[in-house]
Structure formats: structure tokens, C-alpha cells
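Let's practice the habit of predicting before peeking. Look at the sequence and jot down your guess about where helices and strands might fall. Then scroll down.
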Amino acid sequence: MAGLLAGHAAWLSFRGGIPWSFGENFLSTVLTTGVFSSIFLGLTLALPALLGEYRPRKAIEIFASAAALGLALPMTLAVAYDVLLGALHLSSFMPFLLRRSFWWCLLAIAIAVSRALAIGTPTAGFRAFIGLIPGFLFGGMLLDLFFLPRDWNWLGSMVLGAIVGLTQSLALDLLKEAWLEEFSPRLLKRQYILETEEFVVGSEEHCDSSLPEGPEQWFQISERDGMHALEIIDETQPVLVGATRFRFHILHDGDAINLGDKVFIYHNRYARARDAVPEAFS
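Done guessing? Here is the structure:
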């Protein structure tokens, strides 16, 4: 969804000439780059708060901070890339496909770094980069070679956004190591990837996971030596892991965290593989 909306917003920013190109269309390309990257990064981080938690104000705050990073870094990189093309005269001897591939790779790097800065951990950027590279290379070259020559600008932008959004979401899902998943009969279940050293749960909007009711800051999950520990912040309301109440507990794959009428299941692929090693040699 974020990719599609970012692609549509990028199309709205087109100002004549050939979109996503440099040279005479330099200013237009810088604007399009900033619009796409800011909308894409902002929505990928804000939509879970809006659609999963129904917190519009929290979503707006997340979007604003992430979009600012997504606007500044990729636009600066676009300016630097154009200056490099002109200073070194790369356009005269570098093949078109190589020049465009290099640009799409740089844009993927810029958005990945922006995501790492927005979340606060290099791992978040690395996982996004793994998905963004094939998305931008395939979607970008498809845009350059098929859609733009036929003047199908809107359709090409939408396809680019859809491919980039799909590849990043697949990479984040396949490369996630630990996450919380809501226990629910719904097909689309709420998930939180544990990418930071501390993950706070509570009813306050500034929490990483905002619940409709409960203490403002209920508990936090901290990463220590590759393992995650649950620690209670507000002891006025109990948190049950399985059927036992803990104040501090090392989480294991499959642990059920009971929060009143909500249940979240803790998953850890690293722990699952580690626990399976003794079975393989038994």
C-alpha cells in the first residue's frame, strides 16, 4: 500500500520532460525522488499505527519524522549523483543501463539508510536494503525501458511503487528474527518485528505497541545477547506468560503473553533453530 501511494504521489510531482532522468530534468527528478522516498518511508512506518492500532495522531507523528528523513537523504544523494555525472562526464562513456542501474541502487541505499535512522538500528536498514535493491533494479529498469518510452508515466510509477513495496515487505518478513504476533482468528494478524534493543508496550501513544487500554507503559521487551527478556514496568496490572505471572522473564519461542483480552505470541527463529540442534544429534 505504501509503495502504491508513493508511486502515485511521484507521478503527481512530474513537471514535464522525461521523469526520473537527470540533465535537463534535474530539478524535476530531485523533486520526484524526494516525494517518492518520503511518502514511501513515512507510510511504511506509519500505516501499522493507523490501520493496526487505530491511532491517527501517532501515525501522523511517525509519518512526519520518517518522511523528513526520507526527504532529506535521497534528495541530497540525487543532487550529488547529478553533480558526479557532470563533473566526471560519466554520461558520455558510461552505458545507459549501467548508469541507470547505479542510480536505482543509490536510491535503494538512501531509503535503507533513512529507515535505519528512523528506527534507530542499522539492522532495520540492512533488512530493508536486501528487499529494496531487487525492487528498484527490476522496477526501475522496467520503468526506464518499457513504461517511460511509451509515455505510460502513471502506470510505470504505480508498478515501480508496487514492486518496491512488495520486495521490501518480503525481505522484512523473511529476514525477521524475533517478533510478536497477535493471537486472533483474523487472516491478517497484527505483528511487531523486534528490531530495537527495547520494545515498550502500553496504552500511551509513544509506545512501540499502543493498546486500547491498560497502563501507559505496561512492560518492555529488551534484547540481551541475542535473547529477549520481558520486564514489567507497571505492576498494578499483571502480565501472564502462559499461565504464570512474571516480573522478569526470558522469552522463549512460542510464549503466549496474556494482556487482559489480548494475547500476543512471541516468535524467535534464532531460538527455534538453536533448540533444534540437540534434537538433530540425539
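How did you do? Confidence is low (pLDDT under 50) at residues 276-282.
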